[in-house]
Amino acid sequence: MQIIKNEFKNSADFVVKEVEIAGTAAFLCFYSTMIDAEAVNKQLRLLEDRVDKGANGWGSSASTSAEAFHKDKLVTAICEGSAVLIFPKSNLMLEIKAIKVPERSPDEPVNEQVVRGMHQGFVENFSSNIGLIRNKMKRPDLVVESFAMERTVSKLNIVYLADQAAPEVVQEVRERLSNMPNKEFYSSGQLEDYIEDRILSPFPQFLTTERPDRVTYNLLEGKVAIFTDSSPTTLLGPVNLFSFYESPDDYTSRVLVGSFYRLVRLLAFFLAILLPAFYISVMSFHSEILPVELTTQVKSSVKDIPYPPIFEALLLELFIELIREASIRLPQPIGQTVAIVGGIVIGDAIVSAGLASNQMVIVVAMTAIAGFVVPSPELNMVIRMLRFPFMILAATFGFLGMLIGTLILFVHLLNLSSLNQPYLSPVIPFDPTRFKDVFFRVPYFRPDRQQPFFRLGGKKAK
Amino acid sequence: MKKLMICLVLCIPFLAGCWDNLSFRDLQVVTLIGIEGEKGNVTIHFSFPSQTDDQIEYLIAKAQGYSFADAKNEINVRTSEVIDISQLEVLLISEETAESNLIEYMDNLYRTPRNRLSSKVALIRGDMESFMTQTNPQGIGKNVPDFITHLLQTSDDYSMSTSHDIQKVGTLLFSEGKDLALPVLQIGEESGHPEIAGTALFKGKSATGTVLTTSQSKIMSIMEHNPGKFLRGTYEVEVDGKKDLITIEYVSGKKDWKIEGDKVRMSYDIDVEIEEFPIGPVLEKNRIEILEKQLSEQVTANMQDLLSVLQEAGSDPLGLGRTVRAFHPDLWKRGDWNETFSELDIKADAKIKIRRTGILN
């Protein structure tokens, strides 16, 4: 008994009790903070019954399993939250799974809300999460594969549709997960670092989501989902740039509306990256392209600004970033106050104080809003970061600089891959069957609309 | 290698780029330019908006130089900011200046890549200064360039005159088969602000001094087969022994030019709509035929008049030369087209058809 206690460093919530089961002495050990005592008692009673009846395989049931005593296994089982019954005489141990950890309800995630459709989100428990998915997709080819980690108990699970996902992609995920050098992690962001194709690229190579419906339709497209045991965030791969611009809203709204908003979002991508750079170029190099009617207005507002447009833009952009960061960190009621104060300062005071021009405020505001349109939070941050290099290029070289910047950006995107699949697919390499899906939300009336997203041959699914 | 790359990247901002920076803050946008004088002594008037206490005032500056570019550079001695003509709205050239080679004054505008090629060009009659400042504040407001731009646009819409931007002027100046025709502005005696005076004819690269009236310009746009949005004309007709005025609007037309040797026969089928006809119903007692006959005669006479004016000036704004060049090489090769044009035997013939009578019959 003391040996077992020592193994768990005499932790106060670790309990070892001597019990008698059907006339045999046994030790019952568990973490009192992790088990459901009621359920354990029930199991013990059932166990006695079965032993009394002399049933064969008395130790096996849906929540119990008996095996030979082994110290490592005991430790793992107890850490996972099971109660373990040890029979010293027969050298057997019986694991009773009756975990009771506080779990929240599957509410809609705050950062990925939709107007219409499912209002559910993942929780911190993998079994509940996979339950949510199986509930949406009742098919036997939904496969779960688990990968045990060495230094932490939590597991990694990959989920895919065997009939839909490309085998080479699944194999690639398996290999990367088993080749992880340090099998210890705390967040899915850390996991992403280990299995990404290129860590230093600003673009995310996995789609993260907390929405079961998003995972479901991505699985149907042949992607692989990676769940960590302790986080509601799921990684989906392989992705292309356009996956980040799809929102579940597209598929719950009407065809024309969905297509229109998808196009608007794609336009917002360019707007969010290039608009401030464009304004800076015009102001410092190419004023001839301003319409004549605008010149007097623009001139009167930039006339008294003491520094070049690039500083004006950097000042306002940094201010917007500060407001954004502050309102995320602060509790909601205070966050709103920050937004209001920021709005007043940016919108009005900064112009009347002569620190920035009206036009710059409009440009920065439009850019900020265009940046928030992206449905995926991680791409959103990338886009907001990318506009700074573009602004600097615009301030040094004007349109030429923007052109160079855009070229570099596209070369990078072309080189990028997600799980060895091209990042700009299906535009480059061009795949006509999937191409229209990028820009429009294609109607569902054809029964064969499911297309394996990452089989490059473009074979249609059954 | 890596260090070298980093150094190179860090050096990029110090390269050419920043020195080409032309900040909009330091530019003075000029929206109206007037050119007068002759080669060797060119005067340019600049009009530019300037903000004083939330009000926009149009200031005038004037510079003299040997050539256009010289005068343009000279102006910077008396303005606080760099004069920038890339936002030019209207280019005014005095009639006398236009009678010499026009390209001498416009070459600079084409050569600089920043310049706007969609600015309007007009000739002016009279004192240049009176066009630059507006003495009559009730008339048109302070924004003279804007007023002139819209004036030229409107007169083009109503086919009163032509309206060309700098780009089109360049095309026509160098075109051998078609001559340039530019609107002429003058200060109206009653209104006191710029008005359309007519259309100046060009021969080659310089103005001939002949100016068409606005009604001649209308006929010209029909003959050129390039009318504006609206083209209306008033004629006197005699119906049932009564004389009255009729106003017709051009609807559509067809032109047919037949060229045989020295003889050019231009026939036009023109569909019109009646705008005003106080005598009353048109669709009665063969009135249509009577009207059509009288109108056709009058329009034909107008065309014939215009042709004689054009031939006398030796200017071909109709583009007859282009057709000749394409289909009648013998005639084209006879010599300088402007002279050939003057000597041709050209007859015009218009057939008017009344297609619509408005919502009255």
TrEMBL record, chain A:
Top-rank taxon: Bacteria
Stretch forming the signal peptide: none
Cellular component, GO annotation: membrane
Keyword vocabulary terms for this entry: Membrane, Transmembrane, Transmembrane helix
Pfam families, sorted: GerA
Membrane spanning residue stretches: 263-285, 335-355, 361-383, 390-414
Family assignment from sequence similarity: Belongs to the GerABKA family.
Protein name: Spore gernimation protein KA
Species of provenance: Bhargavaea cecembensis
Lineage per the UniProt record: Bacteria, Bacillati, Bacillota, Bacilli, Bacillales
UniProtKB/TrEMBL annotation, chain B:
Classification via Gene3D superfamilies: Nutrient germinant receptor protein C, domain 3
Keyword Signal part of the UniProt annotation: yes
Signal peptide: 1-18
A Pfam match: Spore_GerAC
GO biological process: spore germination
Localization, UniProt: Membrane
Topology within the bilayer: Lipid-anchor
NCBIfam families found in the cross-reference section: spore_ger_x_C (TIGR02887)
Annotated protein name in UniProt: Uncharacterized protein
